[in-house]
Structures
1.
Amino acid sequence: MKSVAVLYATREGQTLRIAEHIAARLRTHGFPVDVLAVARNLSETLDLTRYGATVVAASVHIGKHEREMVEFVKKHRAALERVPSTFLSVSLSEAGAEDAGATPERRERASANVHAVTDAFLRETGWKPMRVQPVAGALLYRQYGAIVRLVMRFIARKVGATTDTSRDHEYTDWQALDRLADEFASLVAKEESAG
């Protein structure tokens, strides 16, 4: 089996946790997996042709995906499109879209925001992944500095998330990520057997 590259860009670390979770699940299907941060000058040295599939995970902050991921995908778009690929867009807005306790209007607004941000990323990069999956992130209030905590509290209020800054709040659906990784593993195995 060819290796899978799980590429990520994160600020507070939740997207790294998501990338590692996906990698661990893919390994249970027998795939060798490399988890790689695009922020470490990876764009210049990475040879994507050694991989048979890619998962790209990027967090959203203030309505935009991480700049280093945008630049990475622009530079490596052709290589990413030659193999099965999935894009994971990690955001607090997705947490709002998934919140069963929110009003339908609030969930719809959050979902529209998720799609707008993801569509902007795909337009800017020109990339056409096989699958795009929004993923709910986390509010890591205890890790933020005072200014970031204030900004994140404002954003949380806007999308209907908790403003309780006394603790961290995780919204990622780990079981949904397992299902996604299982489906992706099946797709990659079919591609390899057909090729």
2.
Amino acid sequence: MPIYDQGYRRYEAREALRSVRFWPITREGLSLILAKRAFLLLFGVAWLPFVACVVWVLVVTKVPQFEAALPIDGRLFGQFLAMQGFWTLLLSVFGGAGLVANDLRTGAILVYLSRPLTRRDYVLGKLGVLMALNLGVTLLPGLLLYVVGLGLAPEQYLKWELWWIAPAIVAQASLMSLAISVVALAVSSLSRSARIAGLSFFGLVVGLDVARGILVNIVRAEWASVVSLQGNLEAVAVALFGIAGRRTAEPAWAAAVLALCIVASLLVLRSRVRAVEIVK
């Protein structure tokens, strides 16, 4: 009987699975991280500001005299998300520093891309790990705090003019999580050591924020806020919630710089995540 040469044919997933091929990477990454008790403890501590804000609302509703000193209008949620920025930084350092760095060190990235996975699937899978962690301490407690506010102080929040609070929480939490996660993943791809990647990311974010503080407070250059990732997120929060914070850049400029940081980080990931290893 004749023999037909079929050659190599790339495996294609079933149609229903093609759009979610990144999910096993995200699921496995989350299971490995959440299996660590120390990380679970850190995640739990990150919810303490939520508890403090609930107590804040409860005190104001029980003792109306405190409302002047502890207002519970829309600014409460902006201040809460600003506090959560520190925890997203720590979660990204301890949970995301090795996501790509360890794969580069062990060569696992070549195994991933030798399967029916594209570079986009790999990046989305790893990004999904950090996004889930960061949304877990920003979006989830933020919306839960809003629900608590509706229950404890309906006369304060059940107003038509405050309809924007929930969408603002979703927008700010999503932007915070996406910006921090993408930059952390890009820094992780630049090293083969999770420890070096984590320290580099932490030093980058904190160093730029210190530089922002020096330029704004000493040199009086408010435009310098755009050099800091946290400063740009704060500028957007000021625009969304009307909170009174440090002097910030124009929200439009801050949003543009954040978009530029996200695009630049994706370009870094595109150059570092590849199916072949180039040895010099």
3.
Amino acid sequence: MNTPDLSVLRGRFLDYAESFIAADPAQGEHYRLKTGHTLRVLDLAQEIAREEGMAPDTADLTAMAALFHDTGRYRQIRQYHTFVDRISENHARLGVRALLADGLLAGLPPARRGVVLGAVFLHNVRSLPQRLPPVLRAVTMAVRDADKLDIVPVLLEHLETAPELDPVICMNVTRAPGRYTPEILDDLEQGRTADYSRLRFENDMRLLVASWIYDLNYAAARRIYARRGLLERVLAPLPDDQRLRALRRRLEQALGPA
């Protein structure tokens, strides 16, 4: 069997995604949401790889891992009708199982397959292990950055335009203008990413995605975030109090120039 290139793997992924839509049209909107997200993450991961001057083989592996990073979401939606891992299953682990069981990586040499599987498994952990092989670390960091860069505008678009918040997309948060969970703000003030389990209000979700600035690994990713003006969109509706003004300054400093 010839080693599949990215175009072959992309075709496999799209066929896989379409099979879920065909079998479960009631959840079609959520499957399509994830397919669109995946293709944009692929583009962003390739942009990061180019800007960072990655070696060609590392850049190829980054693209492959980005393509398959959310494969587990399809099984998650079909079985549990949610994107919330803590009330269903870890979607990264579901993705690894799906990639192996459904033959999506067939034909990749073992070493390359191992990097893709490792990056899929690690793409949603709160922090990466200290000791990882250099190529796996580089690939995983790029996928994590690209994932965040796409999720932010998708969430903002929904928060800004949806008449009612979709509980699947927004993890069951509620609209409560002016309210936020103090413990989430505590996390950001300490330079930590926010804890998903504490999300209660729309503003909590905004603080969550703002906290991802701390976890962007590559300068290219921070530049993309800044160029797109995402921080202003994230923070604009939050209350204008002293703690949040100070937080804005801290996040702007962490983000750096466009």
4.
Amino acid sequence: MRKINYAKVFFGETRLKDIAVGATKWEVFKYKTTRLIKRLLVASFILGAIVGAFKIGRTTTTPIFVQAEDKSSEMYQEKIEGLKDAVMSKLSQCEGGGYKESDGIIIMDTNNKLSIGQFQWQVSSVQHYYKLMTGKDISKKDAVILALNETEARKLAKYVAFETKNKIGKDWVNCNKKHNLDIQVDMIKSME
């Protein structure tokens, strides 16, 4: 079949019709029909290939359903607790001045009150924060014993630092300035 050349015919600026030069109506009909069939075949081949690939993909792959445990939040909490403990260790080292718990540190503070233990607690502060933390009163003797017990003193200091608005700066002014501990506390709190 020969290729048909079309000429565009205008009357003034208006297009009249595409006219096939030197072709009969039958040749024009065959040409247009053949061209339409070729386009339909190409389009259906492409569409068939896409649908076939999708169906093959669905039949050859089997979905696997897995019930996963969410341990990320536990790990995240453990890391946050580790950061809190690091801040408490800095505070203990700064306040304790290199002494050990067994040394039973008792120092006269600048306000003429005794500061006791690794965290240099004053008796009135231990009584105040212990009541806030537990809702129970504590005697002066028990406050001194708590301040000398590094584990209990650390637990109370951690409560003050991370659970009260005072953070570290109100009760441990010098060590807070030296190590920027309140900034670290704020950063850790923002992660929770």
